[in-house]
Amino acid sequence: MNFEHGTILKFINVLDLIKIMENQTLKLSENFINILINLPESGMEYQIVKVTLKNGEILHKHKVLNSEFLMLEENDDLITSKDIFRIELEK
User: Fold this and answer.
1) By residue range, what is the domain housing residue 43?
2) pTM (2 decimals)?
């Protein structure tokens, strides 16, 4: 599976693949991709992040695949990339 930045996801969890296919992911803006690309991975091809939204809400322990696809939870459906204020690795 080739993605925009030329990286091939060789190892991907089946449940993550299902979420991608069901559009339960959010493509991050280039700004956030560039930030995440320079941070260490939490596991093979993913990062666990804390997402701060512009409305002040904080989403904890969300997975980002390949530094560009935020995996959404069921109650995150209405979030767009424009709603994100900051993304950082979860401590």
Assistant:
1) 25-89
2) 0.75
